[in-house]
Amino acid sequence: MTAYTLPNDTGHFGKFGGRFVPETLMKAITELTDAYEAAKLDPEFTSEIERLSKEYVGRETPLYFAENLTKYAGGANIYLKREDLNHTGAHKINNAIGQALLALRMGKRKIVAETGAGQHGVATATVCALLNLDCIIFMGEEDIKRQALNVFRMELLGAKVVSVTSGSATLKDAVNEALRYWVANVEDTHYLLGSVSGPHPFPMIVRDFQSVIGKETKEQFLERNESLPDAVVACIGGGSNAMGMFYPFIEEEEVELYGVEAAGQGVDTPFHAASLTKGKPGVLHGALMFVLQNEDGQIQEAHSISAGLDYPGVGPEHSYLKEIERAHYHSITDKEALDAFQLLTKLEGIIPALESSHAVAFAVKLAAELGPSKNIVVCLSGRGDKDVDAVRARLRGGNN
Amino acid sequence: MNRIEKTFQLLNNNGSKAFVPYIMAGDGGLDSLVERLQLLEKFGASAIEVGVPFSDPVADGPTIQQAGIRALNNGTTLKGIVAKLAEARESINIPIILMTYLNPIYAYGIASFVHDIQNAGVDGCIIPDMPLEEEDIIAPKLEAAGIELIRLVTLTTPIERIKQIATKGNGFLYTVTVKGITGVRNEFDGDIHAYLQAVKEVSPIPVLAGFGISNQEQMLDLTKNCDGVVVGSRIVDLFAKNNLAEMEQLMSIFKQKSNIV
Question: Which of A33, A319, B68, B80 could form a disulfide with A289 if both were Cys (CB 3.0 to 4.6 A apart)?
Fold first, then answer.
């Protein structure tokens, strides 16, 4: 593969990406692009991120060889990149720190963000507490009900959580409201977008801040095995942990990249979140990307047991990697994810987030397929403490 | 000459200001669309903006969001709207401008969309989530079809960029008068007149103010420094309440008073 330099200057990955936003936001996203280009060349900025990543977040995170899971799967070796061990319990903090420092550089002390499961909201509220920034989080009414503990957590951290009742009252609508709020408050507020979605430069910025995952994985794996893994696997909602894992491996063609979407109740039912598997290219929330939509271009609701994967679009870079067939995208059902949640807990004593359980479930299948002497790294994007209630309710409900 | 250009030439000759109402197609049922357009023309609309409902309208406030949901629940589709507009064109003489987010067009197929709205006699298009940087996806096709792409400028658009957008020279320049989304406002930013004057100064095409404009006083005040107003949420609300008398009054008083200016 020739050098991979995307996105281009206009924020496109092939035909995907771009800046499909109301004119009111153009000035802010242009400023953000300029501020980011300057910041990433500023050693003071990058060393502050490194310092906080190390001292505050707890990086680097371990690369763990899951011996019991490997034996169970009966094939390739399975390693886990332990993003669940980050402060706040997921990879989301990697991006929140970077963007909050960027906001400070731009002189913006007010932060708005969206959240689905609450992980990005908690990470954002955490960084805002640390840096003394005003924080307002939009969250769907349905998700507020499902994730009451995370709402309380954000409030403890000093954030204002606003319930979104429009549309389906989930993540997609929280993004709509956050965008509307940003349009009205753009001059003193930074939108701390949580995934590799939205208008340029967000997909690039979030990817870059998350790519610490893949960079560390590469170094750790090389040090241990003097080779690269045969495959890396990550779950995909908007796609931030996957993009962070994939990006440093894109030019390493011998490494296969696997993204795992949420199949919900099945991709042949209306209840799934598999945008790459079942969606079509379309424009949502500022980017051209694969989107779940009906034939008239109305966006459809996504469904997944995992609130973090419950999004009807997928980042433009994933859309591009699918199109050029550099990455492979598969899906895992709610039931398979629940099984993997319990499996990893029992075998390794690690309770994974339901989001990450999708990646684990797929890795077990892939390991058997690849056979012994091959190596797979799974991005364990978050820990499952937040999901214990939901899993208990589901298991007691006898749906499993 | 395009209908939009003709309309503004006429307004200009008469020293009149434009009143452009916005309605949500399919709110109240798509079958009422033609009748509503006829009514607006009768009440004195200079042109009509026809909104296409979208599931995720990020530039719109609650009034238009709700109207969009009602329209979608009625089974309204872009294809259905285009067919109705073709029918409306037989009786409507003023310009019809379609306002739609990009995704319904993208799903329709850009070439087919442009072809079909040209046949339906649509005069212009407003796409609120498509800034200058992305317009190549459709602008050349619209231009070839003689359909004006109406562009927006806002309070956050730097003056150099306003100039760049205005000199593209299509139809009129849609000048967003609030920092925020559509919906009725009680008052405007104190700098609004300076802003409109600055836009007027650099724009070779007529300048219309829109977003948040709902009452007579605001309309007459804003048109001191621009060529007309777009009124959305208020009209949508009056249709939803079936308060046609108030709508007629709003439009006719504006016509009389703005004419004297």
Answer: A319
Alpha helices in chain B (DSSP H): 3-14, 33-42, 62-73, 78-89, 102-108, 110-119, 139-144, 159-166, 192-202, 216-222, 233-240, 244-260
Per-residue tens of pLDDT for chain A, all 400 residues: 679 999 999 999 999 999 999 999 999 999 999 999 999 999 999 999 999 999 999 999 999 999 999 999 999 999 999 999 999 999 999 999 999 999 999 999 999 999 988 999 999 999 999 999 999 999 999 889 878 889 999 999 999 999 999 887 888 999 999 999 999 999 999 999 999 999 999 999 999 999 999 999 999 999 999 999 999 999 999 999 999 999 999 999 999 999 999 999 999 999 999 999 999 999 999 999 999 999 999 999 999 999 889 899 999 999 999 999 999 999 999 999 999 999 999 999 999 999 999 999 999 999 999 999 999 999 999 999 989 988 999 998 754 4
- Contacting residues of B for A172, CB less than 8 Å apart: 56
∠ CA A94-A117-A180, rounded to 5°: 85
Fold for B3-253, please state it: TIM Barrel (3.20.20)
Catalytic residue among A240, A304, A319, A381: A381
Distance from CA of B192 to the nearest CA of A (A): 15
Phi, psi of A337, rounded to the nearest 5 degrees:
-65, -40
Q: pTM above 0.90? A: yes
Q: Considering only CB atoms, which chain B residues are within 8 Å of A187?
A: 156, 179
A92 is a catalytic site residue: yes
